[in-house]
Every structure is written in C-alpha cells, then in structure tokens.
C-alpha cells in the first residue's frame, strides 16, 4: 500500500520549542489518563500553557499526540522482548512476563486499545511502525514458547494479540477498587499453555 508516510512528532532542537513540546506531552499524558483518548485538545493546550495553534504545530492531529505519548511504552515492550530473548529467559516465562507488561501498556488510558488495534493494520497512522515492531517481537516470543513445547502450537500471533486486547479492555474499564485483568491473564495462560503429560 503506497499511501503517504504518516507524520511522527519529534522533539524540536530549539530550546523554546523543546519546552513547549515537553509541556504539551506532559499535559496530554495527564489529560488522557483522566479523560481517555477523547480528552479535549484545547484543555491540553491550556494546561500546557500554550495556544492551541502551538499544540497543532507540534502535533497536527490527535493521532500524532497519542503516538508521542505512548511511543516510549511501546518501544520499551520491544526492548523488553529482545532483552529476554538475548538473555535466554525461559520461553514461557518470557512470554508471560511480556504479556503482563503489554496488557498494562495497552490500557494506559481509556480508548488506547482501540487506537493500537487500528494502528496495527492501518499504515497511515502514526503508531503503525512501532505497533508492527511490537507485534513482531510478541510473535517471536510466542514462537519460541511454541517451539519449546510450552504453548499450544495452533495459537497464532493475531489470536495472541486479540487475547491481549481483551485483557487490556478489562483493565481499561476496571472500577477504581478492582482490576480483573490479572485473573483474565491467568485464564488466558491456562488456556494456551501446554501441560506436562
């Protein structure tokens, strides 16, 4: 698919640009945490102490702002997977650890699961490239656990990410006094793990 390359926001070189960029990102993280992915961009600009035009200069679309606020977490998931594979961590332990971290990140704020799911399949979204890298490293962890005979062989990477999305949705929508995603993950693992005969 030969669409236009999506815009990815980067921290400016000039000091005043960096200050504004950092202030907007900080305000956006707080706003998304409080109000989800539909948080008011005008309110984010106000909390950052900048005009809405300044926000749009750095982040032309809401998708660009969401990508910038979640980029570090997705890159950390990629690095975590690569690090565990390089360190020779037990394949099932590595997959389990990575799945728990993925669920936590996918549910950073309300609406993120849907955004990441769309970004995985839409090359025109700013988060597509990092989502692809994250999907690739999760698939590699899955294959390693399958090759070791620890996870059922018929589970596909797409199904794994569907399961992770479901668990993240549970966490994203949890009441303040409870989070069922840990039990949800345990149930997933019970269903995909190969038991010793």
UniProtKB/TrEMBL annotation:
Top-level division of the source organism's lineage: Bacteria
SUPFAM superfamilies: Homeodomain-like, Tetracyclin repressor-like, C-terminal domain
Gene3D superfamilies the UniProt entry points to: Tetracycline Repressor, domain 2 (1.10.357.10)
One MF term in the entry's GO annotations: transcription cis-regulatory region binding
Residues annotated as domain HTH tetR-type: 18-77
Regions that span the bilayer: none
DNA-binding region(s), residue ranges: 40-59
Transcription listed as a keyword: yes
Keyword Protein biosynthesis: no
Classification via Pfam families: TetR_C_43, TetR_N
Keyword set, alphabetical order: DNA-binding, Transcription, Transcription regulation
PANTHER family named among the record's database cross-references: HTH-TYPE TRANSCRIPTIONAL REGULATOR BETI (PTHR30055:SF234), HTH-TYPE TRANSCRIPTIONAL REGULATOR RUTR (PTHR30055)
Name of this protein: Regulatory protein TetR
Organism from which the protein derives: Candidatus Protofrankia datiscae
Origin organism lineage: Bacteria, Bacillati, Actinomycetota, Actinomycetes, Frankiales
């Amino acid at each position: 698919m030969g669409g236009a390359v999506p815009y990815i926001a980067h921290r400016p070189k000039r000091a005043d640009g960096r200050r504004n960029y950092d202030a907007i990102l900080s305000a956006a993280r707080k706003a998304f945490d409080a109000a989800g992915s539909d948080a008011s961009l005008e309110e984010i600009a106000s909390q950052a102490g900048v005009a809405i035009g300044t926000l749009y200069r750095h982040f032309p679309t809401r998708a660009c702002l969401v990508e910038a606020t979640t980029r570090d977490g997705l890159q950390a998931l990629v690095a975590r997977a690569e690090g565990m594979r390089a360190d020779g961590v037990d394949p099932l332990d590595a997959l389990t650890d990575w799945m728990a971290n993925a669920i936590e990140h996918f549910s950073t704020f309300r609406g993120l699961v849907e955004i990441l799911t769309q970004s995985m399949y839409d090359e025109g979204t700013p988060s597509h490239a990092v989502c692809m890298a994250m999907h690739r490293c999760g698939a590699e962890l899955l294959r390693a656990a399958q090759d070791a005979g620890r996870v059922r062989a018929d589970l596909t990477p797409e199904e794994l990410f569907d399961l992770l999305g479901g668990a993240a949705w549970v966490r994203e929508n949890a009441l303040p006094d409870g989070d069922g995603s840990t039990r949800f993950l345990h149930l997933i693992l019970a269903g995909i793990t190969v038991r010793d005969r």
